[in-house]
Amino acid sequence: ARCQGALKKILHATVDDLTRKIESSLDFYRENFNDAQAVAEIILTGGGANFLNVDRVLAERLLLPIRIGNPLANVKLPKASVPTATLQSYTTAIGLALRGARQDNII
User: For 43, phi and psi rounded to 5 degrees?
Assistant: First the structure.
């Protein structure tokens, strides 16, 4: 039970930090882009999006819709061989592969 309390504190602090960083980014966007449209939703990607209920917690704190992105949404593969549970951990690798493929005119 003691470990669960320590883990909860660590995760709470991490989500607090993430919330502050997102709020700071939203403020920067609004203050520095004259034609800035209101942010309609936030899409979480990467390994941090795997945290249980992080989308729900951030939505409550930021008062914005939050959804977990699908890094394979625009990738046509015969069959995805990456388990759904760990897919977010491959977001950067998928993005870099797509960038390289575009530069080489493969896609």
Answer: -110, 120
Alpha helices in 1-107 (DSSP H): 2-32, 54-62, 91-103
Query: What are the tens digits of pLDDT across the range 71-102?
Result: 888 777 776 677 777 888 888 888 888 888 87
Q: What's the count of helices (H) and strands (E) in the chain, helices before strands?
A: 3, 2
CA geometry: angle 33, 36, 39, nearest 5 deg: 130
What pLDDT score was predicted for residue 61?
Answer: 95
Instruction: Name the residue among 71, 67, 69 with its Cα closest to residue 97.
Output: 71
Distance, CA of 28 to CA of 21 (rounded, Å): 10
pTM over 0.85: no
- Which residue has 């960083």 as its token pair? 21
The pLDDT, as a whole number, for residue 80 is 61
| Contact present, 40 and 60 (Cβ < 8 Å) | no
